[in-house]
Specification:
By secondary structure, the protein is an all-alpha fold. It has helices at about 1-95, 100-120, 125-145, 150-175. Helix 3 runs antiparallel to helix 4 (about 150-175). The termini are far apart. The relative contact order is 0.05.
């Protein structure tokens, strides 16, 4: 009887434990589906946020481009005004001679507008060139003085190092003054 009772108890225990696993597994499967859907919703929210940022970035980019175009148009308009002033001033000085002088006025206005826009103010040495020369001479002198055993080698090394440093400093100054871009 004891064996029968223990066998029945063990069988009941096994059957109930198997049913619980199925229920837990079913609940777990439902929970996994819910978790998956929640993750999908989070991903969609992130995609939406990224799209909103892209749109706002494009709007900012468009507005910056529009401002740049307006500035360019203003600059072109100012250049046109300057060119028309130059042509009108040269036209008034040449207008006293008849039909042949009007032909020369047209040629003068064409040449004055082209020279006004291509005129350059870059004369003399750049700061980079000056810095290179000064750095090379100073570095060579310092290298020769410092290297007592081999002053020639010290002068060469000092000249190279000084020239590179002088060039770097002079180039930075050229960028500040607008002589060189980037």
């Amino acid at each position: 009887m004891k064996k029968l009772f223990l066998t029945g108890f063990a069988a009941t225990l096994m059957l109930t434990s198997c049913n619980k696993d199925e229920k837990v597994q079913t609940a777990s499967l439902e929970q996994q589906k819910l978790d998956y859907q929640a993750r999908q919703i989070d991903l969609e929210k992130q995609k939406l946020a990224i799209e909103k940022e892209k749109i706002s970035f494009e709007k900012q980019k468009d507005s910056l481009n529009k401002v740049a175009e307006e500035k360019e148009e203003e600059r072109k308009e100012a250049n046109r005004k300057v060119a028309s002033r130059k042509s009108s001033s040269s036209g008034s000085s040449n207008s006293g001679g008849g039909s042949s002088s009007s032909g020369s006025t047209a040629s003068n206005s064409g040449s004055s507008s082209s020279t006004g826009t291509t005129e350059t103010k870059k004369k003399g040495w750049s700061s980079a060139a000056k810095g290179t020369v000064i750095g090379t001479v100073g570095g060579a002198a310092a290298g020769a003085i410092i290297s007592k055993k081999n002053p020639g080698l010290g002068a060469v090394i000092g000249g190279v190092a000084g020239g590179a440093t002088g060039y770097t400093i002079g180039r930075a100054n050229d960028r500040k003054t607008g002589r060189v871009q980037k």
